[in-house]
Amino acid sequence: MKLSLIAPCYNEGENVQPFQDAVIAAFDGCGYDYEIVFVDDGSRDATLHNLKKIHAAQKCPVKVISFSRNFGKEAGIYAGMKEARGEYICLIDADLQQRPEIVRDMVKILDEQPEFDVVAAYQDRRGEGRVLSFFKKSFYTLINRLSNVTLQPDASDFRTFRRSVRDSILELTEYHRFSKGIFAWVGYDTCFIPYTACERNAGSTKWNFGKLFNYAIDGIIGFSTSPLRIASHFGIGTAGAAILYLIFVIIEKLFWGIDIPGYATIIVLTLLLGGIQLLCIGIIGEYVGRTFEQTKDRPIYIAREILDYEEKTDV
Ligand code: UDP
Ligand code: MG
User: Fold this and answer.
1) Distance (Å) from CA 93 to ligand 1 centroid
2) Which of 12, 121, 238, 258 has the fewest CB atoms below 10 angstroms from its CB?
3) What are phi and psi of 73, to 5 degrees?
4) 226-256 and 263-295 helices cross at what angle (nearest 10)?
5) Which long-range contacts (CB under 8 A, 24 or more apart) does 110-114 make?
6) Confidence band for 44, pLDDT divided at 50, 70 and 90
7) Is the pLDDT of residue 182 over 70?
C-alpha cells in the first residue's frame, strides 16, 4: 500500500461520499495503491451510516474507525495514523476544503525528493476576517517566542509524510494533543507548499473563537514551560517594587513625618496583586491539570468498531 488518506469526520454526513468520489477522481490512473481511513469522531448525524455504505461498496480500499463518542480531531488523526497501512500517510479534512489533487503533488514531491520526509500545505490566502487573522498571527509569534519548537505560521494539518514520521508521532502519547507542535517537535525535513482552501462542501465548521482560543492555550502549555518562568518573573518584579516602596515609605516617615497613604492606592494595589496572584495560580493550575490528566494514562480514543477491508494479495 503506497498511500493512506486519513480523514477525520465529525458530522460530515453529506460530505463523506463526495469526498470519496473526489479522491477516486484525483487518483484515477495514478498507478499506485491507496486507501482511505475514515475516522468517525462520534458524529451525531448520518456520517457513520454513510461511511458503512461506503465501506460496504469498497469502490476503493476503505477502512472505517468509529469512536464511542466525540474525542476531537486530534484523537481522530492519531487513530487514523495507527490504523494506516500506507508507506505514505496523508492527513486531510473530509469537508473537501483540502483538495485531493494536491495530495498527488505531495506524493510526487516525496517520490522525487528523498531529502524531504514531510510535505505540508500552508494557506496562501486566508478567507477569514482581520480580527481572527490578527489573533492567529499573534499566537504564532507568541508560541515561537515561548517554546523551543518553531511553528510555520499558517501551516495546516494538511500534510503527507513518510511512515517513519508516522512511527515517531505515534510514540508521542500525550493526551492533550496539538498536531502543529507535535510535527515541529518530531523534526524531519519538511517541504512547505502553498494551497488555497476551498469552500466547505456542506455543513459548517466545528471551530469558533472560544475553541480556537483554548486550542492555542493547549499549544502553548503543551510545548513550553515559559509561562511558569514568566509567573516567577512577575513575582520577583512585584516583590522588588514592594521592597523599594517600603524603603521609600520608611525614609518618608523618618525625614518628613508620616503622611497617611491614600485609600485608593491600597485598594488598587490589593486588586493588582490579587489579580497577578490569581493569574499565576491559574498558570500553574494549567500545568498541574495537564499533569493530572496525563498521569491517569487514559487512552487517547476508544474505538467502538473498526471496519477493515480484505487486502488484495497479488499471486
Ligand atoms: N473534526 C473531527 N472532530 C472534531 C471536529 C472536527 O474529526 O471534533 C474534523 C471535521 O469533520 C473535518 C476536520 O476535522 O473533517 C476539520 O474540521 P472543520 O472543517 O470544522 O475545521 P476548519 O476547516 O473550519 O478549520
Ligand atoms: Mg474544514
Assistant:
1) 7
2) 258
3) -60, -35
4) 160
5) 110/160, 110/161, 110/162, 113/191
6) very high
7) yes
Q: Amino acid identity, residue 146?
A: L
> pTM for the whole thing?
0.83
Name the region of 220 (left: φ>0; alpha: ψ -120 to 50; beta: rest).
Answer: alpha
Q: What is the DSSP letter of 312?
A: P
Are the beta carbons of 179 and 157 closer than 8 angstroms? yes
Q: How close is the Cα of 115 to the center of ligand 2, in Å?
A: 30
Give the distance (Å) from ligand 2 centre to CA of residue 231: 36
Cell of 67: 469512536
Q: Is the CB of 83 under 6 A from ligand 1?
A: no
Task: Report which bound ligand comes closest to the CA of 212.
Answer: 1
Each residue of 96-105: b (16+ CB within 10 Å) or e?
A: bbbbbebbee
Distance CA 276, CA 249 (A): 23
Grid cell in block for residue 281: 495560580
Going by pLDDT thresholds of 50, 70 and 90, the confidence category of residue 114 is very high
- C-alpha dihedral, 268 to 274 to 280 to 282, nearest 10°: -120
Q: Which atom of ligand 1 is nearest to the CA of 204?
A: 20
Instruction: Find the 50 Cα to ligand 2 centroid distance in Å.
Output: 19
pLDDT at position 306: 92
Q: What percent of the chain has pLDDT over 90?
A: 45
User: Atom 19 in ligand 1: which residue has the minimum CA distance?
Assistant: 205
Flag whether pLDDT at 159 surpasses 90: yes
Residue 149, pLDDT score: 85
